[in-house]
Design a protein that fits this description.
single chain, 185 residues, alpha/beta, 6-stranded parallel beta sheet, two-stranded antiparallel sheet, 6 helices, 8 strands, hydrolase, Isochorismatase family protein, Isochorismatase-like_sf, Isochorismatase-like_hydrls
């Protein structure tokens, strides 16, 4: 079994939104993300990055927008696989599945954003494809959600619901400390 760290959409558009007053459900996500990348790199474990480039030129994730740039805490290094997606799931239209199969990767540790969008879509698909998947709850980025009736769900509650949706069905949820201890062993 080979385990890879799958880093999803850790891009500046999320930082821009936070600067506009959108509270992250996980204020320390960048610290956890950086620690996990360092640990995997130190052990020589595979890393896979997925970046979102929205086809809409006005979207903050469009390739020509500053928001599409990768956050410094998650910048890929030379030799690390990078896949570009235009939709939610990292598996659709990217070659990610073929890459993982070619590398013999059976287990995924998933971090990034947004928890209830691209992370959840990718993790659900990974689970359905048979990957043993761990979602690192405190290494995810997300924001509040406005319900159809106009009520606002706080970012922390959106994160907890997303983790509840995934845990046990599509993945196991763990903390950064738990994963760091496994990597160090």
């Amino acid at each position: 079994m080979a385990t890879a760290l799958l880093v999803i959409d850790v891009q500046m558009a999320f930082v821009e939104r936070r600067a506009k007053g959108f509270v992250w459900g996980n204020p320390e996500a960048e610290t956890s993300i950086a620690a996990l990348l360092k640990a995997f790199r130190d052990k020589g474990l595979p890393m896979v990055h997925v970046h979102h480039h929205d086809p809409n030129p006005g979207d903050s994730f469009h390739a020509d927008q500053p928001g599409s740039a990768v956050q410094p805490c998650a910048a890929p290094l030379a030799g690390e696989a990078v896949f570009i997606k235009q939709g939610s799931s990292g598996f659709i239209g990217t070659g990610l599945g073929d890459h993982l199969a070619a590398q013999g990767i059976t287990d995924l540790v998933v971090i990034g954003g947004a928890a209830n969008y691209c992370v959840e879509s990718t993790v659900r698909m990974a689970g359905n494809l048979g990957y043993a998947t761990t979602v690192v709850g405190d290494a995810l980025i997300n924001f509040r959600q406005i319900l159809r009736d106009g009520r606002e769900v706080a970012a922390a509650d959106v994160l907890e619901m997303t983790l509840a949706n995934l845990d046990g069905e599509f993945a196991q949820v763990a903390s950064a400390d738990e994963v760091l201890a496994r990597v160090a062993a």
